[in-house]
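quick one, two chains, predict together pls
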Amino acid sequence: MQRRDFLVMGSALSLSPYLHAETVTTQQKAFRQVSSLIEAVQGHMFPEGGKLPSARSMHTIRFTEETIFHPTYDKDIRAFVIEGAQELAKRENEKFLSYTQREKERALRRYEQTDYGSNWLSRIMTLTMEALFSDPVYGSNIKAAGWKALHTQGGEPRPKTRYIQL
Amino acid sequence: MKQTYYDAVIIGSGASGGAVAYTLTKAGFNVAVIEKGRLMKREDFSKDELAYCRRDIVTPNLFEEYHVIEEKVDGKWEATPTYDSGISFWNGNIVGGSSNFMSGMLHRLHPDDFRLKSKYGPIEDANVVDWPISYEDLEPYYTLAEELVGISGHYEPHPYEPPRSTPNFTQPPTKENAVVTLLDKSCKALGVTPLVTPRAVLSKDKGHRHACYYSNFCGSYGCSSGAKSSSREALLYPALATGRLTLLTNTHVKYLHSNSKDQVSHAVAVDTITGKEKTIHGRLFIVAAQAHESARLLLNSANKYHPNGLANSSSELGKNLIFSGGGSGQGELHKESLKEISFDALMQPGYFINRSILDWYFIDDWWHGKFKGGSVEWMFEHQNIISRARKNNYEDGRLVWGKALGERVVERFTNQKSIRFEIFNDWLPNDNCYVTIDPKHKDKYGMPVGKLRINGHPQDLKVGNYIAKKCEAILEGMGAKNIYSSVSSAPAQNLVAGGCRFGDDPKTSVLNRYCQAHDVPNLFVADASFMPTGGSVAYTWTIYANALRIADHIVDVLKKEQV
């Protein structure tokens, strides 16, 4: 199956040719319009008081933005991250951010019922786990808190720079 | 500026390119090795999971350079560019190639792998042929590779362990995790003989290279001590030290140019940073770009003398591409049910499970009959943290998140460890597994991309499933839980061979027994392309050995000035 088909499978949506063709700068603006929503979803997935560090305390949204706009990141998936958030906001009539925890849970599970939403939530989960468990050099596994929660540590030598910048 | 004229121009710096460069420079010849990627030194490597294992950092961006993969879907051939599937068929495009990133569990082929058709007869819909050389021809070079690149291990006689000309490995085995106690016991109870895994990782210092420091993150990563027996560490650095090797990095060969029917005159290459085109001239050209890319390069080098591709008068170029058949499986060892070894010993990071099984290399089963089988390697699940945390986080088809996710992931990391087996069996060559060049898709350099039609033979699945059941029983005997295995026809992108078969008949093979093109005497193909059948182990030791063998012949050719 082709990736673009997979990303939009089962949805009336498609990756917007408009957004997809836009420059990175325009996409960054679009991302910032939905970043609070993505941050809230990450916070719901990785809340305070659990056995893992919370998304909020590890600033995973910052990692998410830096990651998807890095040249090594797949441009189709970058567009999907943004458009999936826009779709969630639309489905919930732009009210997601004001929801209680219980309402957020119901909204996300509703979204998960669609293949598109399920794929998007899975992508957000992956990005958030990358934030929490990648090397601290990437900025979100602060003081290796993610590794410590798992009683593990990354291998040596650790990277001195992000993405092997030689 | 005067054009440099090399004795030999080698395209590709992986296992085979390095072995040929080593032999030729040691013999006093001036050699150029052309590598598309950059040089990363030992001190440049780190255990950065995000960069090495989750992004295209050491392989090309798939939107710029890709393959088209043709597979059968619902009975119809469907072609998908890899920028769409996201499944890359590149393997480590830096100096040393994919040998930098291998796990290094290596075996020699068995003597019967060289005469599969004679031994087992033809198989319907499979293009099985005997090799033009025997194990005896290659044995001295297996031994040379073992010593030269550094393969550690311990020899134990076994009916399917090939004969050796030396009594044992000069490098003792790498250190073992205590879990081998459980594995050995379970095997013994089932009448299975586990063997110590030969590993292309040094257990002792060797020259400029340091012994393994057991980083816990070996496969998929470059080695920071030089212990891993990559082409770069073991062969190219010594070749560079002769002063006769010119390493041309960030240089991609687009095609080989011929001024006459029986000779390549120069390589046409592009600087991957500046985009500037250049030509590289030499007496001999040795293609070592990894099987599917080597065939692509020769197909893209078609000219008026060779309209169907360079060295393709047999029309065999690109055909009979093979991968490694088989599959994998695993089970979990849980803290509360662990007996005989302590949980702390199990969780000790870095040490290997140095065990392989060759008992099913040839199968004679009262129910299933006699057939060629395969080998098994044992290892821990890869210790990558992100991928382990991300795994199996679904319940009733829904993603687990919130506090329940935290409990689940912490439990996985602190109360259990997964042990895994990988099966290697022949991928039978067949008419529907080959590489051509795509008529439509081109890479960023304007050259047609490789189009791979991929098809596994039903026999491959039969063998894989037979062995998987045996391995599941071993895991059960160890007390593992949640055991599963998966055997499929999905190709292992890092284990690819064939496409330029060697043989004595120019009508049915691309290369002669020295991997020299029948049609073009100053052209050789040194990588795994030559293999008519793949055997049932990882290819790398055979690639090193065969490249060292043909390099001796190339030295003779250069000395006699036969070309």
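Chain B has a mean pLDDT of 96.
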